[in-house]
Amino acid sequence: MSVMRLRKVIGIVGLLMIAATSAWAGNTDTLFVSQPIPDSIWQRMQGKSYKQNCPISRDELRYLSLSYCDRNGNTQQGEMVCNKMIAQDLVDIFRQLWKEGYPIERMQLIDDYDADDQRSMTANNTSCFNYRPISGTKKISKHGRGMAIDVNPLYNPYVRSGRVEPAEGRRWAFRREQRKDIPMKIDSRDLCCRLFLQHGFRWGGNWTNSKDYQHFEK
Ligand SMILES: [Zn+2]
Fold this sequence. Notes:
The chain is an alpha+beta fold and 218 residues long.
């Protein structure tokens, strides 16, 4: 059997095991699973979230299937690539968020947006791994190691010196403490924020020189 073919068989067996596991759990409607990056996903990432010279190897990353509640309360199936060091945290956190009906707009790989963070944020897409510098710098972001996640980024923008990213999030960027008109608002009392902090993440809303309300990193 060729290596390619063997990989394919292993992939199919893996998927069957995942399906069986979720069926045994008595829960066929939701999926909270972490697995090595499948070949099809790896292809999808090339030249997009996974760029040349990326120092992170494929086997340091994980592909997550995560159910979530959309803004209408319907269960949707999301996907995410992250560092294997936080894969179990994310599985646990998103399972809890789904249980509590916490709304998430969408959860697609950033490769669907050609790894363009501005486009992904504007679409209010929740995502994790993307090999890129911190906006406005040459330093590689924690997203570049799959160690940071952005949640509902349109309504929870990144604010630095009056500059807002995504630009479309400006109307939700300021005087957030007292405001009740911000959809999917992340603040220190928010369930999502509390769960990430419990799992040892830092929240960008606690930063002093800038505020990154969508951002959690380890
Ligand atoms: Zn971020």
